[in-house]
């Protein structure tokens, strides 16, 4: 066989990468071969010529050539040089430049088979992820704690002590239910701060609220089982229910919270109700005691379940935090969900569930199937943070700080947004709702705010039935007073 085609010199910039220079040369040559830049049977430059071109030692190029030869990308012929192999090891990866567009278009137009959930994710969730935007200012992202005020020096000290010489058991697979000392600390905290009735065995550590919602749907519902959700509600709840094919029934929320009478009119045979009684998301309403008791009575009589999402109840600015709905439950019908994303920081990805005794093994098994267990070292550090009193002190500090930041937001809104956005103080939570005048689209208002570098999520995407007025969700916890005032002025420019 004749070897007549000579491969062109490649353009390669040697940089300060930690990757050895010979490896950089090898990778560039390999990519050129696989992309079709160097055709089969074409001759590579001599090691001396390529070394001179690149300004590296000949030994460097020799090492790269030897690696290509060993992996079957090239063939050597004594006295004739180095050639591209006629049959490449990664042949299936080659894409001719002229055909790349056709392949991409064919893939785009292929009617790929997806599950019903896959189609739902593609049409409902993926578009929202693609258009997720963040403005130039942190105002007014909701659900984000004041990470700038978190005691990272304390956290780092605790982490350093644990990481210096971690015991073997912390590096092995952990208990799917969670690190037991953390479960003990969480149980003690929930009993004292939220009046939750539980012992350590009932606490299961999860990767945040979303995983807890998913596990609950998987364990308690079958396809076509009816489940009540609040309207408006956290969209992750709807996603968790959709994952099991449940029949999702939206129930309106009024000034007393979840409306049980309306729920019963829609379906009397619901198997489960998802609620946020302490601070309804996103409207911020607190469920009245009479409604709580009525919901518990319904669960008892119907042998149904209640899921209590207690996502930000620590932050109450008028009196003590309200007791949990689970604390009123006498028959073990409530699944309680809490999260550290709002009190520590979201990247920690730790939360908790409190489940009835007869469901402990079932939920633990479901937790094991999802991702075995949460990171053990993070659980240990959080345990130390709680047990040494840092968590309680941090919550107390943030409660005062957030009350101050909310006051700044309300004052600035009254000064700059009068007539454009109605903003009043809330007794609890990490955000408030700004109500727009009638017939003003909150989606349009949100988009205009985004162009001014302000995040202000519209209420309407959280709703099944339209609200009387549009509104914007204004988070105030992650922004300092200067950023709040600047954000309000930007918002005013957007809404004029």
Structure description:
With 496 residues, this protein is an alpha/beta fold. The protein has 3 domains: 110 residues, Orthogonal Bundle (Arc Repressor Mutant, subunit A); 115 residues, Alpha-Beta Complex (Aspartate Aminotransferase, domain 1); 241 residues, Type I PLP-dependent aspartate aminotransferase-like (Major domain) (Aspartate Aminotransferase, domain 2, 3-Layer(aba) Sandwich). It contains 17 helices and 13 strands. Strands 3-10-9-8-7-4-5-6 form an 8-stranded mixed β-sheet, sandwiched between helices. Helix 6 packs across helix 14, helix 9 runs parallel beside helix 10 and helix 16 packs across helix 17. It starts with 20 loop residues before the first helix and ends with a helix. The N terminus is likely disordered.
Give helix and strand order, one letter per element, not per position: HHHEEHHHHHEHEHEEHEHEEEHHHEHEEH
Mean pLDDT: 87
Q: What is the tally of beta strands?
A: 13
How many domain regions? 3
Radius of gyration, whole Å: 29 Å
Number of helices: 17
* Share in β-strands: 5-15%
The top-level CATH class of the largest domain is Alpha Beta
Largest sheet properties: 8 strands, mixed
Q: What would the principal axes of the Cα set say about the shape?
A: globular
Known CATH architecture of the largest domain? 3-Layer(aba) Sandwich
Distance between the termini: 77 Å
Under CATH, the topology of the largest domain can be stated as Aspartate Aminotransferase, domain 2
Low-confidence stretches: 1-7, 91-100, 131-135
Strand order of the largest sheet: 3-10-9-8-7-4-5-6
- According to CATH, the homologous superfamily of the largest domain is Type I PLP-dependent aspartate aminotransferase-like (Major domain)
Structural class: alpha/beta
The percent of residues in helical segments reads: 40-55%
